[in-house]
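Fig. S4 source data, part A: sequence.
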Amino acid sequence: MKRITCESLAGARFSPLNEIIRLKNASAAIALMVLMTSVGYPQALKTDRDGNTPAFKVEVWGNNPTDFSARVRSYFELRSELEKGLPIPAVTEDRAETIKADRALAQRIRVARAKAKQGDIFTPAIGVEFRKALLREMNAHTWKVIMDDNPGDFEAQINGAYPEGKPLSTVPPNMLAVLPRLPEDIEYRFVGRHLILLDTRAMVILDRIPFAIQCPDGDPACHR
């Protein structure tokens, strides 16, 4: 077998075929990286009004995110079972038909979760970690984004309906980036300073963390 030395490699001639293979391999690697980073949140990580994009961060929360995700997944699977047998709403511009289908699902959810209470999903330990993560991301700009469309404080009854006509608050991208991901049609929303977990398909409030956010100390610009 011919021995390959550094000198022989240095003196090797340029090969078009080898260059094509090298470029194809590099392209494949880039495509794989794009595919991996394209996996996002169902609650989209959109840029905010000032064009700021979220900085993706990894928070070390011990086993709490796993526990939280398992509880959310359990609810998601329950909802999937409850949807069976319900009429599939036709593609229509009739808002009344859509509302009727959503209310039928919401009623099944409320019956199945009749004993639901605060802390079933956001356990005390999970709530502590959420508050810490949100506090680290809070500043005057983030507070303003949250409060712009905030419906204000109201009694968010667990397993109850989100009030019709109330706006849905924006969850800033920097906060979404540090919170556990959620399945489709389940979202984080703020009600005043409280964080709720909302089923946006049935518009049912699943759980809440009271006083999940607070203004940064000494920053009067974010007080309202």
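Fig. S4 source data, part B ends here. The longest helix spans residues 16-37.
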